[in-house]
Amino acid sequence: MSSKRRTQSLLVTVALSSFALALLVAGCSSNGGVGVALSRVLGQAFATETDGDQNNTVPLAEADVILLQYDEEGNLQRAFVGMTDANGNFVVDVQAQPVVAIVVEGMTNDGNVDISGLYNPDEPTIEKDLDTATSIACIAGISAINDGSITEEQLDEARIQNLEDAAVEYIASNPEFDFYNDVERDAAVAAVRSATNDGANPAAPGAFT
Q1: pTM of the predicted protein model
Q2: Rounded CA gap, 200 and 121, in Å?
Q3: Which residues face 100 on adjacent strands?
Q4: Among 109, 11, 121, 14, which Cα is nearest to 60's?
Q5: Structural domains of the chain ordered from first start
Q6: pLDDT tens column, 6-44
Q7: Dihedral over Cα of 71, 201, 167, 46: its sign
Q8: Cα separation, 56 vs 28, whole angstroms
Q9: Is residue 105 within 8 Å of residue 9, measured between CB atoms?
Q10: Which of 91, 123, 153, 208 is packed most tightly, with the most Cβ within 10 A?
Q11: In angstroms, rounded to a whole number, what is the distance separating the alpha carbons of residues 181 and 152?
């Protein structure tokens, strides 16, 4: 069986290395909580799948939407918050906080895939689509918090943007990159973290060539 057909939970696997994800997060569904500021996060999730010798980008339709957020003790918690529609669109209401991750767990012709992204829920409405680049940035950001390099408060909008821009550049500079290959994905995450100093600065021009 090819690496693309392995059932895998990319971001959740990273989180499981240090955090317990057994508890559901109270009040993080679309109902929210009384007197709690909410951000409405909207986006569309895309993944790549093979079609012969070509890689196509397809929406993750009717896929599970998972919210990962930190509790008061700094533990990462996981909650199912809905599903994407037929076009891969999702809407999630999130309590205001420094940073959260949204993971879309779906399926392409190549098997099960996870696509994720980081969000700073500090505005009434936030729109961002998810793809392999946002997923690399997401794993990079969570990994940096995981190993103590940064805190969740430091993973702000500017750091996330730097990580995502670097991930886009990395993929463009490595046309044979296989997001579903563990070794290649880990190398991409490490390169993005290194080039941006965990998102503290943009990657230098030509950092991945």
Answers
A1: 0.84
A2: 20
A3: 69, 119
A4: 109
A5: 3-196 (2.60.40.10)
A6: 334 444 444 433 333 332 333 333 334 444 789 999 999
A7: positive
A8: 33
A9: yes
A10: 208
A11: 27
Decide: residue 183, CB within 10 A, 0-12 exposed, 13-18 middle, 19+ buried.
exposed
97 CB neighbour count, 10 Å cutoff = 18
User: What is the spatial distance between Cα 136 and Cα 188, in angstroms, rounded to a whole number?
Assistant: 7
Structure tokens at 116: 């994720």
Residues near 102 by beta carbon (within 8 Å), at least 6 away in sequence: 41, 43, 65, 66, 67, 68, 90, 92, 116, 117, 119, 130
Q: How far apart are CA 31 and CA 50, in angstroms?
A: 38
Distance CA 66, CA 86 (A): 17
Question: What percentage of residues in the chain have a pLDDT greater than 70?
Answer: 83
Angle between the 182-196 and 157-173 helix axes, to the nearest 10 degrees? Answer: 130
- C-alpha span between 162 and 169 (Å, rounded): 11
